[in-house]
């Protein structure tokens, strides 16, 4: 195997929640990788070649082959480095449930968060209402467990924590503070995750996320 | 375990491509199940209870617990009845690739097909153009293999064949016939799949699909 084939490369964009998920999974598994950050307004030929369908980050390049879509990347990482800390549960029903929640977070929580980021007054308010509803659902799913999968940090936690980080920004930026009153278990879970080594190393700070948003916004107003 | 907990129930709607996928997977595994068809204009309390988030079919109820979302159901079926005919490849990269193609089909092929079904003139033409583009991509992915996973029928084939069935309807209904000229390997694959026992038993005929569409349309014009 050539050196190039052995290399593990993550094509990424640092404020992206989806990129963050892949980073956390790699750190949890103790995998060393080369981090290549993309300029999304001027995507690299490597990104276009490695994700010819969607042209999106994150892309994991392993043994010269590309794996795209964050939830597929996490499952791949779990299956390749299967002897380290497992990310998905082993029992089929629990695996199905984790996949369902991941899909829910990527669709619903992400979709409503985008409304809060981008929406004008009424749309932003709708986004906040939806986020509260999804948070209540997730609070119930979490119940009295330490993490979504039980006693150990895993797939669902990895996917939700970058959005929890957004919620913190939404507190100052969009006056989104109902979650603290209505979903105390979810907030406890989030604060615990934020202290975890793999999360600290991978997650942009709330300030960095907000700065990236302002940069984006400037781009639009000029675009 | 009570009799109710042992039962395997599929909540379904017979013209649905997503319901069809779950049916094919169950037949491939030789699993006996109780088929409950839903009236989507008047959803059953069981469906609302078993899929409280999306209220959508298909839902697999097994040991009293529900599994939702067709691609998650197929993976669950593969993991529970793992000693029968495997549906997903065993090698992690091939598994990631299968998951990527399934996601692509469910998003892109389904999305463009809906434009052909529902769209007015220009939108329908756009849907047909997109479908041809996706079909060319899939033709290339298939290459000279018998099935998407190689020599055996599996996950990607199960998810694509209900849409291939739609393509046949689109030939008469929307003059969509370029695929036969441009994607001969995909057509050969599709015709081979249509003769497969699990597919024959699960797939509505093209005529039934078109009739269901006309019923739908009548509903809208009254709605």
TrEMBL record, chains A, B:
It is an enzyme of class 2 (transferase). Its EC number is 2.5.1.18. Keywords: Transferase. The keyword Heme does not apply. Residues 91-216 form the GST C-terminal domain. It catalyses: RX + glutathione = an S-substituted glutathione + a halide anion + H(+). The keyword Transferase applies. GO terms for molecular function: glutathione transferase activity. Residues 6-85 form the GST N-terminal domain. Pfam families: GST_C (PF00043), GST_N (PF02798). Belongs to the GST superfamily. This is glutathione transferase. It comes from Solanum stoloniferum. The lineage of its organism: Eukaryota, Viridiplantae, Streptophyta, Embryophyta, Tracheophyta.
